[in-house]
Amino acid sequence: MQIIAILAMDHSLLIGAKNSLPWHIPEDMKRFKDLTTSEIVVMGRNTYFSLPEKFRPLPNRRNIVITRTKIEWVECYSDIGSFIDSMKDQKVEKCFIIGWASLYDQFFDLDLIDQVELTLIDGKHEWDIFVSEFRSDFHEIASIDFEQWKFVTLIRNS
Ligand SMILES: NC(=O)c1ccc[n+]([C@@H]2O[C@H](COP(=O)([O-])OP(=O)(O)OC[C@H]3O[C@@H](n4cnc5c(N)ncnc54)[C@H](OP(=O)(O)O)[C@@H]3O)[C@@H](O)[C@H]2O)c1
Question: What is residue 125's predicted lDDT score, i.e. its pLDDT?
């Protein structure tokens, strides 16, 4: 199974703040939608509940939540191992890890991420939720530059 992390961060690895995002980039939202529609999106419990109610579950995607506390009507796994085993059993080919901080870090730490779809935003922002550095394990295969951010595709070093 190919596991892709999709995230937006600035140059200090900042991804946001507890209850909001430090940036508003409609192109980033559109890219997220384009890449993940019809796919599997995997998230932690807090991320699931941080989605606005009308986008919860995210439409036109198979939503999976990693949590020790089962959420009614939602496909949940109580840990990463059981999630991976089940996906393998189902012969799933691809999924997207959509966050948040704790889930990204765990999947990177376990070397489970094959590809990163990164929105890299210029500057440093005064917010407080970061991911751990992961880029030394990856190299860039594509990027599209915009004035204040770029879209970068990274794949794991072989
Ligand atoms: N600004 C935004 O756009 C945005 C987006 C997402 C999140 N947030 C907020 O950012 C804060 C930090 O997010 P976060 O990184 O803590 O969120 P998260 O990863 O979405 O959720 C953490 C929760 O996911 C479950 N979980 C994570 N790893 C697990 C594992 N290995 N096994 C079983 N369960 C696991 C646990 O739920 P249980 O305790 O139920 O087991 C854990 O408490 C939160 O306050 C969140 O609301 C903001």
Answer: 82
